[in-house]
């Protein structure tokens, strides 16, 4: 058995803001992917994955929801026959490793599933997001459902608000100097502790004010610029966003990268922002000159995502 491929995702804009109903933009990232496979001889990583899927099976078996039901007998039989999730998506890196797994399980075992080939109305998208939120909460304690949605549809998704999401057309890549890239912090992060820090910060009125008056405004402007292809304005807004994140989200930025982050802002060689919840994993970078950014960050591993 080999299931269809499900890709990683990158939340270009909107980390944390989408929890509080501001805009977000997520794109598939097909450098990393995963698929369900079966082996007669489980060992190492595949054995660990199978054990994790057994726990996920128990969680799904106990879901008491009108939203979705699953073919649990088939799921259980496949697990007993050595099913595991074969994935190249790094875990704890903010690129949706659990999202791809959730999408693959829904695709294979959900009854009356909404398929990618249907006319995806807003109601269907919201239902899928709600189902995925329920499923992925097993991994994170609290999930928006966006990572699995992105992986399942393999389309860019624009989040206008919790109740308003739509597939987005993004400008095709150009062979220009500018780029979006990933910077490897070389340490895994965990979503749940980071979200808990954020929720504690939200009790502070000043932080809430910053989120709505600075963070959300810059995020929304970045999304608008990116979708419209306004590159010059985009970099101005990304710089503003990078400053706000460095000032207000320090616990989510690994300590070793505080100076690297500030250096980008002061030199204009690149601008950094969180990729997912932060705390480790990848950091997202934007630059008007990728070669210059590579020289400036020569001690770090970079991966190209998108060219301007």
From TrEMBL:
Entries under InterPro entries matching the protein: GHMP_kinase_C_sf, HddA/FKP, Ribosomal_Su5_D2-typ_SF, Ribsml_uS5_D2-typ_fold_subgr
GO MF annotation list: ATP binding; kinase activity
UniProt keyword annotation of Lipid biosynthesis present: no
Entry keyword set: Kinase, Transferase
The keyword 4Fe-4S belongs to this UniProt entry's keyword annotation: no
Entry protein name: Mevalonate kinase
Organismal lineage: Bacteria, Pseudomonadati, Bacteroidota, Flavobacteriia, Flavobacteriales
